[in-house]
Design a protein that fits this description.
Blueprint (H helix, E strand, L loop, with lengths): L2 H19 L4 H12 L18 E2 L5 E5 L7 H4 L7 H12 L20 E5 L12 H15 L11
Parallel strand pairs: 2-3
Antiparallel strand pairs: 1-3
Length: 160
């Protein structure tokens, strides 16, 4: 492993820790935590992540896929973006078909899914009520989005 790969992995770990600890948006914090406590019937026996959802994928990625925000009962439940919801079902199947994923499904964070040459993140890291983040919430996540956008080998990483 080269120094560049180690640097990207260390930067990604630092970024992930900062994202997961974020509490910048009171409305989103209250919503994501309430959804995690007051589970829908179909997931009542499953643990919920209930925190901001970091990006996921290959630290050596050349492709960055950005979604709007985690789903209340998808990423907010599983802790991995696009995991456990219908959009992820479509996305991971398509990525598998073109060789960007090792399997066509992503149901849980520990299901063995690995991405190859791709990294996935969300513009807003917490599940918003009615899937509609406020502009100020998007702006609060912007530093995370900018740092995630630098996950390409061609552009390098820039996170402070």
């Amino acid at each position: 492993m080269t120094d560049g790969v180690l640097d990207r992995r260390a930067t990604l770990a630092k970024l992930t820790a900062e994202i997961v600890a974020c509490r910048r948006c009171p409305r989103l914090v209250e919503w994501r935590e309430r959804v995690a406590r007051e589970k829908v019937a179909r997931f009542r026996d499953e643990p919920y992540w209930g925190r901001p959802v970091p990006g996921f994928g290959d630290p050596e990625a050349r492709i960055l896929i950005v979604g709007l925000a985690p789903a209340a009962h998808g990423g907010n439940r599983t802790g991995r973006v696009f995991t456990g919801d219908a959009s992820g079902d479509f996305l991971f199947a398509a990525m598998y078909e073109v060789g960007l994923a090792n399997q066509p499904t992503g149901r849980r964070a520990d299901d063995g899914l690995e991405l190859r040459g791709a990294y996935i993140a969300a513009a807003v890291r917490c599940a918003p009520p009615a899937n509609k983040p406020l502009p100020s919430e998007r702006d609060n996540c912007a530093p995370f989005s900018i740092a995630s956008s630098h996950c390409s080998r061609m552009s390098g990483w820039s996170f402070r």
